[in-house]
Amino acid sequence: MHLPLLTSSANRLVISVIFFLAFTPPAVLAQARQSAQAPQPIEATMRNMVSAILANSLADFVSPGDEAFQAGMTKEMLSSINQSLASRLKQGYTTTFLTTLHQQGFDVYVWKVVFKDGNDDVLIFMALKDQKVGGFWLR
Predict the structure, then answer these.
(1) Of 52, 57, 106, nearest to 126 (Cα)?
(2) CB of 84 within 8 A of CB of 119?
(3) 3-state SS record for the chain
(4) 109 lies in a domain?
(5) The CATH number of the domain where 52 resides is what?
(6) What does residue 119 show for φ and ψ, rounded to 5 degrees?
(7) In terms of domain of life, where is this protein from (predicted)?
(8) Predicted TM-score (pTM) of this structure
(9) Mean pLDDT of the 9-19 span
(10) Into how many domains does the chain fold?
(11) With left for phi above 0 and alpha for psi between -120 and 50, is residue 18 left, alpha or beta?
(12) Are 46 and 126 in contact (CB under 8 A)?
């Protein structure tokens, strides 16, 4: 008996992947997706910076930053972020680590922020070099 689908290595690979996905319990796949986490000190830094936004504390917000980050952030900039997010943060939110990017000499950590108010989510991008924050963006 000749099975034409199995003659090509590409077809065998596709069929193998289909069988793997079909017979792998969903819980195993979900666990694999959720296993990625930012290192604990990085996660703590992000959480502290979000808390500083909520408290509108410039000193706390810039404390983990490098010299350029500390010099570039102003009270007015932080107040603007606070005004746009504080009420939503107070209602509650969850963060989910998504990935790490390597860009221009920095390790950029990315989280998804889901607010309990049900409105638009936000992404946090936190760039680190030599264990110092060089950038923190909310999109």
Answers:
(1) 106
(2) no
(3) CCCHHHCCHHHHHHHHHHHHHHHCCHHHHHHHHHCCCCCHHHHHHHHHHHHHHHHCCHHHHHCCECHHHHHHCCHHHHHHHHHHHHHHHHHCEEEEEEEEEEECCEEEEEEEEEECCCCCCEEEEEEEECCEEEEEEEC
(4) yes
(5) 3.10.450.590
(6) -80, -170
(7) Bacteria
(8) 0.73
(9) 47
(10) 1
(11) alpha
(12) yes
For residue range 44-102, what is the model confidence (pLDDT) as tens digits? 999 999 999 999 999 999 999 999 999 999 999 999 999 999 999 999 999 999 999 99
Confidence band of 122 (pLDDT split at 50, 70, 90):
very high
**Amino acid found at 124:** I
Average pLDDT, integer, range 95-124? 97
Q: Is residue 96 included in any domain, yes or no?
A: yes
Residue with token string 């909520």:
54
Average pLDDT estimate for 7-30: 50
95 within some domain: yes
What's the pLDDT score for residue 36? 79
